[in-house]
């Protein structure tokens, strides 16, 4: 099958096309409603809080309500390992990447490049396109992200030692609690007390089987994640002057590195690791990781820059430009990933 045939097959796949149009159209709806002042300036922040404290935890927990087998366990371990390795790699290569920049500007560019909005921007897209398995792998992948964001990211931007409040943010926020709760249940479900459901035994904590009255409302909450996150992204874009940000050449350099170079690097390295059987991953894992890494500036990373006066203007411009570029590039990455899938590299 030629590349042209693969592209045609990809672009006529209604699941892929629908996922792309859903993302873009709802973001544009949020942008339109903010520009028309249907949504107030506080509306995006409220939506963000709902997503981060309610919808995303439900989505993360629910994604682990599935059977475990040797293949998925090995895959999950490989994703977890890569979730730590890639941040070490990015810390190392971000230095030469921004060598011509100095001082605070270099520190800010490095931290913003290393840490994207994997939770708020990435997981809703992964969930919409790749379903529960994608969300499960993205939640596992994000463990390394949170460890480095609240340790290396904070220390690099603040110049201070690690503080207890960052340990709290690292481990005691709703998303992390839900992720670890779901992960533990998924891993040890075979050792938990079993109950009979529809003629077969399942762990009593598998609420998708044993407590549908609880799982169903959590499913509704999880379903809010993607549309509310996309509306919030559109609302945020509607509040900022794109013209001012677009005049900043440095922000363009950063945005291209963050949204194009970083995910491309992941594809190359994971292809090598998979073909050499050193750290093999499946297509769904690869696609999940690429979408997570093709995200714009992490809110926490930008907040570090503003809080510690580390070129706050650059951080704001970079955040806007990278978000716009991520919205444009996400459909492109989905098509590229499907082409890779059809070729059969993974």
UniProtKB/TrEMBL annotation:
It is a multi-pass membrane protein. The chain crosses the membrane at residues 16-34, 46-65, 77-99, 111-130, 136-155, 175-198, 218-238, 259-278, 284-306, 318-340. Pfam families: Mem_trans. Keywords: Cell membrane, Membrane, Transmembrane, Transmembrane helix, Transport. It is found in: Membrane. Coiled coil: none annotated. It comes from the Bacteria. InterPro entries: Mem_transp_PIN-like. This is Malate permease. The keyword Cell membrane applies. The keyword Oxidoreductase does not apply. The lineage of its organism: Bacteria, Bacillati, Bacillota, Bacilli, Lactobacillales.
